[in-house]
Specification:
The complex is a heterotrimer of chains A (about 850), B (about 140) and C (about 80).
Chain A lengths: L1 E5 L2 E5 L5 H8 L5 E2 L6 E2 L12 E4 L2 E5 L10 E3 L14 H4 L8 H4 L6 H13 L15 E12 L3 H11 L4 E4 L16 H10 L4 E4 L3 E2 L8 E4 L3 E12 L3 E3 L12 E3 H8 L9 E6 L2 H12 L3 E7 L13 E4 L2 E7 L3 E8 L2 E6 L2 E5 L2 E3 L2 H4 L7 E3 L18 E3 L4 E2 H9 L5 H8 L12 H11 L23 H4 L14 H6 L3 E5 L2 E6 L3 H10 L2 E4 L4 E6 L3 H8 L12 E7 L5 E11 L2 E6 L4 H15 L4 E4 L4 E7 L3 H8 L14 E6 L2 E7 L7 E7 L3 H11 L6 E2 L2 H10 L34 H8 L5 E9 L12 E4 L2 E12 L4 E9 L8 E4 L4 E5 L14
Helix pairs in contact in A: 5-6, 7-8, 15-20
Chain B lengths: L2 E5 L3 E5 L2 H5 L8 E6 L2 E5 L4 H7 L5 E4 L4 E7 L3 H5 L11 E7 L2 E8 L2 E7 L3 H11 L7
Chain C lengths: L3 E4 L3 E4 L4 E5 L8 H9 L7 E7 L7 E7 L7
Antiparallel strand pairs in C: 1-2, 3-4, 4-5
Classes of the chains: A alpha+beta (about 850), B alpha+beta (about 140), C mainly beta (about 80).
């Protein structure tokens, strides 16, 4: 016993009650309002298949209340309806059925153009199954990966039998949604399923997962199971689908009135829940279990006034079943807010019966959606009722709701057929039948039978063709699907803690977590230009390339001349793709006769590794790649005092001859073995110190300490942005387009076309015959905004026509004027040198670099 | 329950032709992982000079310990904790490589202990993932 | 058929462990006409396709397979 809250009222429940049964006992008959026409909907299937009993439970919308056990203190409310589900003024849309036919939104609100914008807002508010909770749930969903020999979906009789059989030869996971209703008539004791379940669960290698919903059967095989607090990914070698069958949905006028329900729903209420589903009932019996449902109703004291029964079962009808109509059908159900009478028909004659309950046991339809998701060749079998065949039957009456989830009636299907949608798949897409929460469990058969019966060509098989089944098999929240999916993976250097301790602003860049600034990036900039500064460049891609074929590999991968690179020397290299486009840049160092060292941009490291290996493999070269990206850290010591700083700490000489430009030397700094590479990225004297990752913090601390009296401070990516811009360096990806050749980038010197072959050479030859249509340029601005950086991304125009774009822009501190980089298209065979920006400033094309143009400072 | 421990492993990389890699033997106390046709890894030793002498013809023999961080899962629920961060099917004993917490990892299994080697630059991320996703089965 | 890629060293692995290298292409072409076709006009067959995959999450080696683009069957 207990109570929960329902729309401000307190509702008591008994042990074993579902929310639906407790509400029914409380007197609730309208459980929801339909999606489109706001029609009243009452309890119908009782097995969690149809959408009718869906309500918002504890803030969670679209919960099927016939499957949820009551809990003390629950909060339940109906969704839809305005102002509420009981007195819904929006029900007027049902009268507008004629002007809102199926697919009306494709045909109306077309002119004037603003009409749809307005109408859409109204329609969105009027339709829907409830509001999403405004906050995320506190509990985090866990993910588990489980490997097993056999997965059995469904723990009814057939599923448990299959489990027992499979357990003899391997591990078994059997899962079940754990819903309230059973296919066995309630009350018949002892329950064979309970006994079998206990026996099977105790077998070795058998795991029973309750309240687990299989979302689909995916390739590999892979079946995700959604549970309350977790998502379980199951990887079985074989799957057995034992999900049973639903009772057939009856289609006739008035079939969705509250008071019309399927046999199992009525029997569950009358039997185990002890609630009379109605006072006067008409019952339709066409299945074995229908006979049992009828008995249950009679035993519960329901007055059965008439029973329409198939001729084969006439003899089985018990006493107290009212007027027996053998071979009878439902012609129509009538009522206002709920059922008031039913017309049964037989051989063209009809008879009306006053009643408040119509119980339908028309047949069984296999719940085999999961099985139909399997691909040919996958080991997925179906057992039990889920394996029932479904023959073609005459589609229901003249009218009636076919798809209760989406409010699609027989009339709508007829109209769609008339409009030319002439098979089940297209009818499904146009009318949205089977696309609701039931995913065709209720309406799929009616749709297929409708299409089959209207089809002029005779069907080759007597089985109604089903529309394609796709995951998810049941509605699932995004929160569940996101379980185990985490934020972007961030790489970190070994200096990360130091940056945090120094108060740096860290953010993502190229797959790494990097310091953008330690306070005032302009101060950091000045430290680089005027004194000395450190930067963590441990994110750079770093590769050792070794072996007899290493020289060949780098010679063919890079477009520039390689064979004249001496040990101890470095060269700037562009990486081109097959089509001749620049993908990455970096530095290549010759270490020895058969050993090279390559650095790449931070974001390009992964691809560089793959590219090196691919080319070595394709060319059959005896060349080997060691990825040192994680193994080594790197610290850039930059500024006019860089050498002075290193002299204080280096055990070896670092004069211009020992560590030449462009070149490197392996030496020891503060006792840490380093490869010191001369770089020119920022236009100052700079040494990139590559070192063992674990000794990074030690090296950084030693450098910072030794530079204290020069007011050394580190610099981050913000300062670097301007430093490299003043030097005219492009950022691959920021300043470059995916189809930039070296020529377009103004770097023809990075290519040696006299080489026999390199990746992209043939493409460059081909493009060399074409006029250059676009090029990269340096820019200076006047009349621009106060914050030059705002110009970044603006278009460049000539006589009002867009001919280019600004890709980088910032006010140069050392030159005290606004500068930038961008690209421009050729206009009338030439490239303009004066343009206007989108915001009205003037842009002039200038040569780069802006700062240290002859390279004297970096070569120092 | 299971325990998670972080370790800085000793790792050696040997790069060379297939034949050369076939000849690599694991010194006592270390495990040999043939991670690629032309690459072998020794976990538990960083004696590059010693191995280089034993494997003439290798293109590169180098101690690469700095590139790796290892996470060790011990206890009866070690494989349960692992199953929270990877869909790999572990052997009773042996090793394999694949996706663990979105990192390209090598996994060694021996006597109920699972050792996961991940690139050092992803160590912080992987540790966060294991501690968060396997929280239920890890001891504090 | 399940989309798993057979890696020579690691055996059959889910495709999510790999980076896709595209349809097999010759490394070079004899003239610029052929070069254009090689680069921009792949066969893109509805059927068996020879293609490259990189085992990024595992051994980081490249492998060539023939996959039927209609059924994902390999071999």
């Amino acid at each position: 016993m207990g109570s929960f809250e329902f729309e401000g009222r307190s509702v008591t429940f008994r042990p074993g009650d579902t929310v639906a049964s407790a509400l029914y006992r409380h007197g609730v008959r309208t459980f929801s309002r339909s999606l489109k026409y706001h029609r009243r909907r009452g309890l119908y299937c009782g097995t969690g298949d149809c959408p009718n009993c869906s309500m918002t439970v504890d803030g969670q919308p679209a919960v099927r209340t016939c499957t949820v056990r009551c809990a003390e203190g629950m909060r339940v409310e109906r969704a839809g309806g305005w102002p509420n589900a009981e007195r819904d003024l929006l029900h007027v849309t049902d009268r507008l059925h004629r002007v809102m036919p199926v697919g009306f939104y494709y045909k109306t609100f077309v002119r004037p153009r603003f009409a749809w914008a307005v109408a859409e807002r109204v329609i969105r508010r009027a339709a829907g199954l409830g509001a999403l909770p405004p906050t995320a749930s506190a509990a985090r969903k866990v993910v588990r990966h489980v490997h097993v020999d056999t997965l059995v979906i469904g723990a009814g009789l057939a599923g448990l039998e299959a489990t027992r059989e499979a357990a003899a030869s391997g591990s078994v996971l059997v899962c079940d949604e754990g819903l309230a209703a059973r296919s066995v008539a309630p009350g018949s004791a002892p329950d064979p399923i309970e006994e079998l379940r206990t026996a099977v669960a105790s077998l070795e290698h058998v795991t029973l997962l309750d309240e687990a919903t299989a979302l689909g059967v995916y390739e590999w095989l892979h079946v995700p199971l959604a549970r309350a607090g977790e998502l379980v990914h199951v990887y079985p070698s074989r799957v057995v689908v034992a999900t049973g069958a639903t009772e057939e949905h009856g289609v006739f006028p008035g079939n969705d009135l509250p008071g019309v329900m399927l046999g199992r729903a009525a029997a569950a209420l009358a039997g185990p829940h002890g609630v009379r589903p109605g006072d006067r009932a008409v019952v339709v019996v066409r299945t074995e279990e229908g006979v049992q449902h009828l008995q249950t109703l009679i035993d519960a004291g329901v007055e059965v006034v008439a029973t329409a029964v198939s001729p084969a079962l006439v003899q089985r009808v018990p006493e107290g079943a009212g007027e027996i109509v053998a071979g009878g059908d439902v012609h129509e159900a009538r009522g206002g807010s709920s059922l008031r009478s039913v017309v049964l028909r037989r051989e063209g004659l009809g008879k009306r019966f006053e009643c408040d309950l119509l119980v339908l046991s028309l047949g069984l339809v296999p719940r085999d959606g999961l099985a139909r998701m399997a691909l040919p060749g996958e080991d997925v079998t179906v057992v039990g009722d889920a394996a029932l065949g479904v023959g073609i039957a005459e589609p229901g009456g003249l009218d009636g709701m076919v798809c209760m989830c989406e409010d699609v009636s027989m009339h709508d299907l007829e109209q769609a057929w008339d409009e030319g949608f002439r098979n089940a798949e297209i009818l499904k897409r146009y009318t949205t039948t089977t696309m609701g929460p039931c995913q065709g469990a209720m309406c799929g058969r009616a749709l297929s039978c409708f299409a089959a019966s209207r089809d002029a060509t005779p069907a080759p098989s007597p089985v109604a063709p089903r529309t394609t089944a796709r995951p998810p098999a049941r509605p699932v929240t995004l929160e569940t699907l996101a379980a185990g999916v985490h934020e972007i993976v961030d790489r970190r250097t070994s200096l990360n803690e130091l940056h945090v301790a120094a108060g740096a602003r860290l953010d993502r860049s190229g797959g790494w977590l990097r310091p953008f600034s330690y306070g005032d990036w302009r101060e950091e900039y000045r430290a680089v230009r005027e004194r000395v500064s450190l930067m963590d460049v441990g994110t750079l891609g770093k590769f050792a390339i070794a072996g007899p074929g290493a020289g060949d590999l780098v010679d063919r991968l890079f477009p520039c001349r390689i064979d004249d690179l001496e040990p101890g020397r470095t060269r700037y290299v562009l990486t081109l793709d097959d089509a001749g486009y620049a993908m990455d840049d970096g530095l290549l160092a010759r270490v020895g006769a058969e050993e090279w060292f390559l650095t790449t941009t931070s974001g390009g490291a992964g691809r560089a590794d793959a590219r090196l290996r691919n080319l070595a493999d394709r060319l059959g070269l005896d060349a080997h790649v060691l990825d040192r990206t994680a193994q080594w850290g790197a610290i850039n010591v930059a500024g006019p005092l860089a050498r002075d700083l290193l002299e204080r700490l280096a055990d070896d000489s670092i004069d211009a001859a020992s560590v030449p430009y462009p070149g490197f030397a392996d030496l020891s700094v503060a006792g840490v073995p380093c490869r010191a590479i001369r770089t020119g990225f920022v236009g100052e004297l700079a040494f990139e110190l590559h070192h063992p990752r674990r000794r990074g913090p030690e090296l950084w601390a030693a450098l910072a300490d030794a530079g204290r009296d020069w007011d050394l401070m580190p610099h981050g990516l913000d300062a670097l942005e301007l430093l490299r811009l003043e030097k005219g360096h492009v950022y691959i990806g920021q300043d470059t387009m995916p189809d930039d050749t070296p020529a377009k980038l103004g770097m023809p010197w990075a290519v040696d076309m006299s080489k026999r072959w390199f990746v992209g050479k043939r493409a460059l030859e081909r493009m060399g015959e074409l006029p250059m249509a676009r090029r990269h340029v340096g820019l200076e601005f006047s009349g621009g905004p106060r914050a030059t950086a705002d110009l970044r991304g603006e278009p460049l125009l000539v006589e009002g026509q867009v001919v280019g774009r600004i890709t980088s822009a910032e006010r140069s501190i050392v030159l005290d004027r606004p500068i930038g980089l961008g690209w421009i298209r050729a206009v009338d065979g030439g490239f303009p040198d004066r343009l206007r920006t989108g915001s009205g400033a003037t842009a002039s094309v200038v040569t780069t670099p802006f700062y240290d143009p002859d390279g004297g400072r970096m070569r120092g | 329950m299971a325990e998670l421990r972080t370790d800085l492993p000793q790792v050696l990389a040997i790069l060379g032709s297939s034949d050369v890699c076939d000849r690599v033997e694991a010194p006592a106390g270390s495990a040999l992982l043939r991670v690629a046709p032309n690459e072998a890894m020794l976990v538990g030793t960083d004696d590059a000079d010693g191995v280089r002498a034993d494997v003439p013809g290798a293109a590169l023999v180098e101690a690469v310990s700095d590139a790796w961080t290892s996470f060790v899962l011990e206890g009866p629920d070690a494989s349960e904790a692992f199953a929270r961060v990877s869909e790999l099917l572990l052997p009773e004993a042996g090793w394999l490589q694949g996706d663990v917490a979105a990192a390209a990892a090598k996994v060694l299994v021996e006597a109920g202990t699972i050792t996961i080697l991940v690139p050092a630059n992803l160590a912080a991320h992987v540790e966060e993932r294991i501690r968060a996703d396997a929280a239920e089965v890890l001891t504090r | 058929m399940a989309l798993s890629i057979p890696c020579d060293l690691c055996g059959h692995r889910p495709f999510t462990e790999f980076a896709f290298g595209g349809e097999w292409r010759e490394l070079d072409a004899s003239d610029t006409e052929e070069e254009f076709a090689r680069e921009y006009l792949p066969d893109n067959p509805e059927g068996p396709q020879r293609e490259r995959w990189f085992h990024a999450m595992g051994c980081r080696t490249w492998t060539t397979v023939t996959r039927d683009t209609r059924t994902n069957e390999i071999g």
